[in-house]
Write a structure and sequence with these properties.
8 helices; 4-stranded mixed β-sheet; Conserved hypothetical protein from pyrococcus furiosus pfu- 392566-001, ParB domain
Length: 243
């Protein structure tokens, strides 16, 4: 079978010479752009942009935006000179929509993620894979069922999902919820300009979290020393999070 055209050359074109298509219907969120940038940093620019003879994008708007954000001066492109205006519009839609029609073989996906996690020669940011933490949690649930059935490869996927959860816990988080201060002596007052106060003075908080917050809290959020107006504050409320 003879195709109407086949790409035979990839060119490096300055980013300044390329223009997004004004009528592009595909929208890229800030989160997805971060995933594209992470993928480029991990693997390189592996998928050339498709442009017409005037440098207007046909496919690759997200990649061009990510490349600009990364400060790239040139990007790889394939120039399509054989398409009519209607064919360009049709290809813009088909290039995005056809990929969405694919599905995953969940067992093979699980094994592939496990293989990536087990590899010793790479340390890939999970954002480069394009999976959200919630999606990996779903894979964890399926992998857990497989492990209970004696499926050894699923154990790697379980480790991967646990690794994601550990990374999400690296950012110090406040163990209790805060709201704006009210005129109540039962609340501990903090030194922030926003005048926030602990609304969970009696809420159970794991000691490990209290110690972590005490170490990582900004100086502006450190509890004030008792004053004449706060002398009636119960000791348990005044020292919340610092025990």
């Amino acid at each position: 079978m003879t195709l109407p055209w086949m790409a035979a050359k990839i060119l490096l074109r300055p980013v300044a010479e390329l223009r997004p298509h004004a009528g592009n219907a595909r929208v890229h969120s800030a989160g997805q752009l971060e995933q594209i940038k992470a993928s480029m940093l991990a693997f390189g620019f592996t998928n050339p942009l498709l442009v017409d003879e005037d440098g207007v994008l046909i496919a690759g708007h997200g990649r061009l935006e990510a490349a600009s954000a990364l400060g790239m001066a040139k990007v790889p492109v394939i120039v399509l000179r054989h398409l009519s205006a209607a064919q360009k519009e049709a290809l813009r839609l088909a290039d995005n929509r056809i990929a969405e029609n694919a599905t995953w073989d969940q067992a093979l996906l699980r094994d592939a993620l496990a293989a990536v996690q087990a590899a010793q020669d790479i340390d890939i940011d999970l954002a480069a894979l394009g999976f959200s933490a919630d999606e990996l949690a779903d894979i964890l649930a399926a992998a857990g069922d497989a492990v209970s059935d004696g499926d050894a490869p699923a154990r790697g996927a379980v480790r991967l999902a646990r690794r994601v959860r550990r990374r999400r816990r690296r950012i110090p988080r406040m163990p209790i919820r805060f709201r704006r201060a009210r005129s109540s002596p039962a609340l501990a007052t903090f030194g922030c300009s926003a005048s926030i106060a602990c609304s969970a003075a009696t809420a159970p908080t794991p000691p490990a979290w209290r110690a972590s917050w005490a170490r990582s809290a900004p100086r502006c959020c450190s509890p004030r020393r008792p004053t004449a107006t706060s002398a009636t504050t119960p000791p348990a409320a005044a020292t919340i999070g610092m025990r």
